[in-house]
User: Fold these one by one.
Assistant:
Number 1:
Amino acid sequence: MSAAPLSGPRPPRRIDLGGVTVDLLQIGTFRSDAGAIFGPVPRTTWEPLVHAEIDAASRLLQSLNLLHVQTSEANLLLETGMLAAGNTQQDEVVHSVSARDALLAARIDPDALRYVLPSHLHRDHAGGLVTSSGAAAFPKATIVAPQAEIDAVASRSARARAAYDAPLLQALFAESEPEPFITERQLLPQVELRLLGGHTPGSQATIIRGSERTLLFMGDLFMRPWQANPRWVTSYDDAAWVSVDAKAAIFAEAATEQWLIVQSHELAAPVGHLVADRDRFRFVAE
Ligand SMILES: [Zn+2]
């Protein structure tokens, strides 16, 4: 077995949707237990798919993928990566720069962002909302999140307490209150937000419509290409049944309309589209 090494930031990739540009920033990598990511899928099925990628502890190599979106009206950031840049966390090794530093390195002004949209508020998506000293990393931007996700952070459930960095997020939200929505929000003429749930109570999808192409980003409901099968959900999904149904519905829409999709944790080929395949879908990289 040869394990792929951790690596830091990669050069951004620009995607032109027609009147809207999207910069894919891969700000670093971390390792996750493969069995937990494959959830209900037996090891004999998943192992051949990732044998070159997993390390001796059976951990996958995961990328931290962020999207910087420029429309005619506003600049947005989807995802913020992790807080603990370059550090070893309890159960995972991380090699990453902060979202703010990644934007600066790409010559993007972090203070020109109007909105910051984490797909959900788990550590590897919301960690970059704050700086290493605990201050707001994007003080001029508005954080938008489903009310269900904001409520989940405050939940007394032991599962929520393990999944969210609640003290850090609650201190941040006390200073810069997020703008909540319930099920859907048309944030800008080209940008639509939809509550999907499943992975977390408030996992959201962002749909960006350019004049030539539509792009879908749905956080950890689609982190790696094999999850094009709606039934392949992670052990971290709070409500697997909700995830499977939400994925099946939005994947059908994405496949029919040939939407471009960017995956949240795929390193090598995170951009592509879905093709219907029997009772599931197949991801085709572009
Ligand atoms: Zn994640």
Note: The two ends are 28 Å apart (CA to CA).
Number 2:
Amino acid sequence: MKRVGEVTNRYLINVNTNTDETRAIEPPPSVEECPMCKGARHLRVDVPYGHPFFGRLLPCECLTREQDERAFTELERFSQLDPFRHKTFENFDPKVPGVDKAYNYARKFAQDPQGWFVLIGAYGSGKTHLAAAIANYALANRNQALFTVVPDLLDHLRSTFAPASDVQYDELFERVRSVPLLVLDDLGTENTTPWAGEKLYQILNYRYNEQMPTVITTNRPLGNVDDRIRSRMSDEAMCEIIQIQASDYRPKKMGERLDKRPRKPQYRR
Ligand SMILES: [Zn+2]
């Protein structure tokens, strides 16, 4: 799995702008010339004088398509979804007692992500499976999503903050903060330093103010979460909180594991 620290500046582009500067970071690969813009990558629109687009250059479809592709490539590099790629709604068992409410809401959220969805559950309750399924669903439908495990995310942010880092801290922070769908797995298990706690708060506070779709899983009661984050979670108009009651989702699945990954070795004490 690629770690965030392996991403180089070469791939960091600002997908929100169409400036020449953006394209200059990495020239487009030589592909067949676009028949619409003949390689100019921008088009003047045929509109009458007085129209807001009159005389303006608009990005050609070929440019927006390429920018979308780059955004996906970049998100894949930042994402920690690789170990959870196979976790989908199709291989989640909604009949396990205690998971149906979370499962139904997760499906609904995946189809139309709005606001925040907080999943509370014990270790092995299936919450990470559902969170990963939401991210996988978005990516399968070509919607931008970032799945990240909170303690690892904070480690990555710390390492990119180091002067010798390849990745610019600002770029990574901005990417996580503003991705259309953010999935944060395992909130509350991070070993919070004041710095890390502040970064996490800044990310979530931004997404709260901008009302950006965000999925958060935690195995802790919300009482352990930063007061400022908890107060945003308590906004019922914005945030749906569902506690998975299943004592353990995974052991029930042992006999019919859909999970093809090798199991962790069991050591005797
Ligand atoms: Zn074109």
Note: DSSP finds nine helices and seven strands in the chain.
